[in-house]
């Protein structure tokens, strides 16, 4: 699905740059390789954690205050 969407956007508008925010694909490297083969211009992965571990994983400038 991800790779197909990237290919479709590139085909329909060759000057459009594609940025994708992907899941972890549950560790499936073949799925990641399919996305990479579709050649998105920007590839990002959102890393999240539980509240009690946030301070250890995320710089404080990125933590929103309640």
Q: How are the SSEs placed, and which strands pair?
A:
Elements: H1 2-12, E1 19-22, H2 29-37, E2 42-45, H3 51-57
Parallel strand pairs: 1-2
Distance between the termini: 37 Å
Which sequence of SSEs, written as H and E, runs from N to C?
HEHEH
Gyration radius, in Å: 16 Å
Strand content: 5-15%
State the assembly state of the protein chains.
single chain
Description:
The chain is an alpha+beta fold. The protein has one domain (2-62). It is 41% helix and 12% strand. The chain has 3 helices and 2 strands; from the N terminus they run αβαβα. It has a two-stranded parallel sheet with strand order 1-2. The protein is elongated, with a radius of gyration of 16 Å. The model has no long low-confidence stretch (mean pLDDT 86).
